[in-house]
Design brief:
Length: 112
């Protein structure tokens, strides 16, 4: 499995004592692999990589938020169209009902 290969590669590249200590404090060994960093250049490269990954994730979140906003707008427009059509139909039926009630009342008064 990929995690086992990554753990084996990281352990082979690390000092045994440091590996054992890092593995002992690993919060989630089923998902996380300790990797030894030696020197400032390696630390800076790790930090730069994490910043780049953070920016990439922020861009993905922004893209997802934009897509979600488009979907929400489309749903809102569709709902408004349906609501407008329902209101027009309600007004039409109300007028028809009023005309029928008026005609019934007219016929009732004529027979009396």
């Amino acid at each position: 499995d990929e995690l086992a290969r990554a753990r084996a590669a990281a352990r082979a590249a690390a000092d045994d004592l440091l590996w054992d200590r890092a593995d002992a404090v690993n919060p989630d060994p089923s998902r996380l692999v300790p990797v030894q960093l030696s020197g400032f250049a390696a630390l800076k490269a790790r930090c730069d990589g994490q910043h780049a990954e953070g920016r990439a994730q922020a861009q993905q979140v922004a893209a997802i938020a934009a897509t979600l906003a488009q979907v929400a707008d489309a749903r809102e427009v569709g709902a408004r169209v349906k609501l407008t059509a329902a209101a027009a139909r309600h007004a039409q039926l109300s007028h028809r009902l009023l005309a029928i009630v008026g005609r019934v009342e007219q016929l009732r008064t004529e027979r009396s």
